[in-house]
Amino acid sequence: MADELDELIEFLSNGSPQVRGAAADIVRGLTGDSDGLRSLAARADRALPALLRLLASVGAGCAGEAAADSLVNLSQDGDLAARLVVLGAVAAAMDVMVKRGGEQPKLARSLVMLLVNLTQVESGISALLQVGDEKVQGLYVAKLVRSFCRSSCDSEDEDIFEHIASILVNISKVEAGRRILMEPKRGLLKQIIGQFDSTNQLRKKGVAGTIRNCCFEADTQIQNLLSIAEYLWPALLLPVAGKKIYSEEDRSKMPPELANALSHEREAVDDSEIRERALEAIYMIVMQDDGRKAFWSVNGPRILQVGYEDEEDLKVMGAYELIGSLLVGKGEIEQDQEQGEDKPQ
């Protein structure tokens, strides 16, 4: 068996397209079970470069798709993912996606999933961010965001780029990634937030996680966050606003983008993780003086009060309460002072 597998790996680089294609199909099958993965992992020094060459080769067709699927399965192992990054897998995946993704949607989807796995390791994140090269830094990310935002589809089966949501969460776990996403001139975070309206739960969860991660920079980036408040507050507050219709009095204290949405009954956001991430992001924003003032200005405390009444998940309730304790300690005093200043003397 060992000799047969070694020969199979050699066939991946055979001069005949038919032979390469047949070998790639067999390798893809082997990566579908744990025994096959272990056998190929033991020969990673030959298997990984051969699969990457096949992926990148012009005219690889179905063989390229099989190679991509194999790399997706192999890269679930963190050590193999790191080795693939060293071999230039991130650049290869992006290059092939740009050049052939439009013609081969199945290939594009597999390449996105490969990048999800590669960005589970630090070196993969750095490679995708293109850290160290100021001329191109963030270019790959901008291309992914563009694909993510242009490809939203009602049918999840046809949503080729939905897994970019997971890539965005991965890269926003590091400061360099957050800085690129939040850079005002690029406008990437604003584009990403727009995808929160998608019916695709993977997209919604990824957007919520990305916003939440970016809010870790609130202490230094609060003005950049508030500059897109028109898009940010609906993405954060509507998931935790409950299902009730808000009174005209409550809505009169909100900007139109919130007031209009809360003037009628809505479907609740069933995913508790999305609600929790939204509340965590709000907490980090209201920790900042300017963020807290902005939160009061959109009647945020009232929205959380109503949403809390409908909440049943204990963990999410704890996130509501954490914000409440912060507002009671700081926000209400500030609001009282502002109201006092507004009173005629």
UniProtKB/TrEMBL annotation:
Residues 105-275 form the Protein HGH1 N-terminal domain. It comes from Triticum aestivum (Wheat). Coiled coil: none annotated. Residues 281-332 form the Protein HGH1 C-terminal domain. SUPFAM superfamilies: ARM repeat. Belongs to the HGH1 family. It holds the Pfam family DUF384. This is Protein HGH1 homolog. The lineage of its organism: Eukaryota, Viridiplantae, Streptophyta, Embryophyta, Tracheophyta.
